[in-house]
Amino acid sequence: MSPAWSSSFRCNDTFDGDTFIATNSVASAQAVCDYIAKQAGGKGELIIIHGQKGTTPEVDRSKGCGEALKGYPDIKVVGELWSEGWHQDEGFKLTQDLLQSHPDVSIVFGQADALALGAAQAVKVANPGHTVWVAGFGGDLAGLKALEGGVVG
């Protein structure tokens, strides 16, 4: 994954500085979806919990995941919903809604770690009786702890 760096500094009597670090969301989402597709054996039903519709991260992450899925013709996207604010409670509710319509889902991509954590909670509550792979995006502390604990993949 390729981070982008931008820094600006003004040197005078005091030191002021701003730093911005971002990632290439297209390439990163492609890597996440490729990874989870491989974990699922290259087949299954997938649902996507999107971020806020039309925002640059949502569009880029959708594009990247779509690129990865081209290599997995046996993975079918069966449902997609959009969050309003990228929050964990939205990931929970949206995933619950999609699991009711699509009980055979075996893969969930949450476009942010918070959405994926909510999705993992919804899968646990639904107790589908089969393995469901859940992946998130972002690397925030809660997401990393969930990854370490095996809650998300």
Describe what you observe in this structure:
The protein is an alpha/beta fold. Helix content is 42%, strand content 29%. It is built from 5 helices and 6 strands. A 4-stranded parallel sheet has the order 4-3-5-6, sandwiched between helices. Strands 1-2 form a two-stranded antiparallel ribbon. Helix 2 links the parallel strand 3 and strand 4. Helix 1 packs across helix 2 and helix 3 crosses helix 4. The N terminus is likely disordered.
Keywords:
153 residues, alpha/beta, four-stranded parallel β-sheet, 5 helices, 6 strands, globular
Fold topology:
Blueprint: E1 3-11, E2 15-23, H1 25-39, E3 43-50, H2 56-69, E4 74-82, H3 88-101, E5 105-110, H4 113-126, E6 133-135, H5 141-148
Parallel strand pairs: 3-4, 3-5, 5-6
Antiparallel strand pairs: 1-2
Helix pairs in contact: 1-2, 3-4
Shape, please?
Answer: globular
Radius of gyration over C-alpha positions, nearest whole angstrom: 17 Å
How much is the average pLDDT? 86
* Uncertain ranges: 1-11
* Number of strand segments: 6
Roughly how many Å apart are the termini?
17 Å
* Tally of helical segments: 5
